[in-house]
Amino acid sequence: MDRGERGVVMGLIRLRPRPAGASSATAAEIVDDAERIAVSEPVGEHEALHVAPATDVQAPPLVEEAPERTAPAVVAEAVSTRVIALANQKGGVAKTTTTLNVGVALREMGHRVLLVDLDPQGNLTMSQGLNPDVIERSMFDVLVHKVPISEVIEHREADLAVASIDLAGAELALSAMIGRERSLEKALVEVRGSYDYVLLDTPPSLGLLTINAFVAATGVIVPVQCEYLSLRGLVQLENTLAMVRENLNPNVGVEGIVATMFDGRTLHSREAIEILEENFGKLVYRTRIRKTVRYAEAPVKGSSVLKYDPTGAAAEAYRELARELVAAKEAEDGA
Ligand SMILES: Nc1ncnc2c1ncn2[C@@H]1O[C@H](COP(=O)(O)OP(=O)(O)OP(=O)(O)O)[C@@H](O)[C@H]1O
Ligand SMILES: [Mg+2]
Fold it and tell me: Which of 12, 86, 145, 191 is deepest in the core (most CB within 10 A)?
């Protein structure tokens, strides 16, 4: 990405322009080639749903639905529940790692937390020592067969609504259903009052599972990998959110961006942070999640890094992030 292209990206996302005279970034070096090739044209409003990898089932165009009435008692109870989608259509940026470890950190702070595995890969489910290949009932049954979500919740380090291999067929099955974008929102009505935080781990695509997460969410947290920062990917994500706001959930938006796999010794990482902060300002959490093998080791043991290495820096980073996201929300509510 050259400087001009970077300007296009910024114009599209309608965020603060890069200040004149700011250091010319080596963004070309840190935007990954694969994505640059995949998205060679400026991102149009309707391209947003077409960025899923070729293996993903594409969501049909969004359709407008009449708003549904929800029982007043449920609404009153659910008001304080934060439903946060962890999303980035780019793979391997630490969505699952962040969902689990922020969730467990919030749990440590005394909050009631539900984690929801919406990814057919089932990594979140696996990271709590469960095998998605042998799970009988999962989020697939919740989304497609309207099984109550309470029936697929396992009580682990935090409560976890599990994924199974079936979930790979959910987008296709949902695509034929009326109200396909609201299936998760409806399923969560049963349990929202029982939790302070519901964290949704989404797959690396902007297909129907991720759209369901955006429709059910009160906010979106976007993990971005410092090693391969993709501004264009963030624009696509924002375009999809704009469509969801227009048609399905007027209140949803990016509430924070978390820089992951940060390595302060490399120029790449430092420049990635600089670019993010210039473009997204206060949306970028101050907490940086550093690169360390601890995050890969913990799930192999079926645990969060907070349980695996409770006093280590890796665990502390996610505790700090959890405190920051609680404080950011409190500041916003008090404003
Ligand atoms: N801060 C970190 N430092 C080093 N490795 C990390 C870090 N965070 C996550 N990882 C590792 O990077 C890999 C990808 O992380 P993770 O599965 O959380 O990403 P993801 O965005 O959920 O991926 P996908 O898009 O496939 O769902 C995993 O092996 C994980 O253990
Ligand atoms: Mg994942």
Answer: 86
